[in-house]
Amino acid sequence: MILTQKPAKKMQVPFVDLKTQYQHIKPEIDNAIAGVIEESAFIGGDAVKEFETSFAQMYGVKHCISVANGTDAIYITLKMLGIGEGDEVITVANSWISSSEAITQTGAKVVFADIEPNSYTISPAAIVQKITSKTKAVLPVHLFGHPARITEIKQICQENQLFLVEDCAQSHFSEENTQLVGTFGEASTFSFYPGKNLGAYGDAGGILTNDTELANKFRMYANHGALIKHAHNIEGINSRLDGIQAAILNVKLNYILGWTEKRRTRALLYNEMLQGIEEIILPTERSNTKHSYHLFVIRATRRDELKTFLQEKGIQTAIHYPKILPNLSAYKYLQNAGTYPVANSYESQILSLPIYPELEKSQIQYIAECIKLFYA
Asked: Does any domain span residue 311?
């Protein structure tokens, strides 16, 4: 590769820049937090109700049930669908552990499936291969912001009478065939962890569904088994969104669609500036989808050396994920359950570059120049 010019003066490029985002909306955030404190509405209250209503409306569904975090959202959903001991739930091999540990917490067995080569999302063909008489649900993860083949997966679930629960922790407002992911199955789960596209300033999560009976079950189980205080119909857990986090999310909801478009614009800039580097593979986007680019993930030869080089140049990167789930010590007991050749082959290649709405064009150009310099 021929390098036409030396990189510009060294920059500091954080992987995520939540401080800059806060500074852009500081008056609104501060007022929202102050309002919760003034009303002492720390658990429940108007801010929580407003968020649930607004988020459900933006997705065009009947119910949003806010919970404490995205992991709880998955667990509560599966548990209230009746999934438990003796059941199996199929999910993807290369997600964060919350996707699989929530399955195990219900008493069910997690069954991993391999991924598609280009989208990093669960392979429908692999799902079919994993279905047994014990399978009760499929939990696809719309990973990195790219939709899984959710229409095809829904058909598989319908043909086999399986529950479909979508893990949308990384895919706020992603789409397939102009339909928002998170609206295809019985329910969908969301994380609002600070680093997510729509993030609180602490842990937060939510569940979407059009099924009113299920919504009541989710809400009841998340609130100690009671829809009305002291009227405990069942034993539940304590998983509630607090008022301050809800107030912060209410402010950010006004910006999320614009932020998503900015992420997409920055992904386009990356693709333009990184074209022609034979040693890396850029992310792809299926023609019938809308990628929300929670992460911008490349595959790179000499990945670890590149990561170190970029760090020395002031550029923070991350690896999502250093080990696929079946290769973790937590799942040693499943080592004879199958192989995952595609996901396995990417462990040593994937690298996430900085991407967020506030990322400047000059920063993307600097990152691209540094990558070109490394491979030159």
From this structure: yes
Q: In whole angstroms, what separates CA 301 from the centre of its chain? A: 26
Query: Residue 219 domain-assigned?
Result: yes
The residue among 203, 231, 253 that closes a domain is 253
In a domain, 60, yes or no: yes
Q: Which amino acid is at 149?
A: R
Q: How many domains does the chain have?
A: 2
- Three-class DSSP category at 350: strand
**Does an H or E element contain 167, and which?**
strand 163-167
- Residues 332 and 326: their CA atoms lie apart, in Å, by 7
113: part of which helix (H) or strand (E)? Answer: strand 109-113
> Is 19's pLDDT higher than 70?
yes
- List Cβ neighbours of 110 (8 Å cut-off, separation of 6 or more): 88, 89, 91, 100, 103, 104, 331, 334
- Alpha helices, DSSP H only, in 83-123? 98-105
Residue (of 169, 157, 189) closest to 76 by Cα position: 189
The pLDDT tens digits for 110-154 are: 999 999 999 999 999 999 999 999 999 999 999 999 999 999 999
Q: Residues 285, 224: one domain? A: no
Range of the domain at 201: 23-253
Question: pTM for the whole thing?
Answer: 0.96
Please check whether residues 217 and 93 belong to one and the same domain.
Answer: yes
Nearest to 162 by CA among 170, 153, 149, 171: 153
Q: Which of 194, 225, 253 is the last residue of a domain?
A: 253
Q: Which residues of 166-202 are buried (b: 16+ CB within 10 A; e: fewer)?
A: bbbbbbbbbbbeeebbbbbbbbbbbbbbbebbbbbbe
Statement to judge: residues 274 and 212 lie in one domain: no
Is the distance from CB of 237 to CB of 223 less than 8 angstroms? no
For the stretch 41-85, pLDDT in tens is 999 999 999 999 999 999 999 999 999 999 999 999 999 999 999
Q: 79 and 214, same structural domain?
A: yes
Phi (first) and psi of residue 63, to 5 degrees:
-135, 135
Nearest to 261 by CA among 148, 182, 159, 357: 357
- Based on the domain organization, do 118 and 68 belong to the same domain? yes
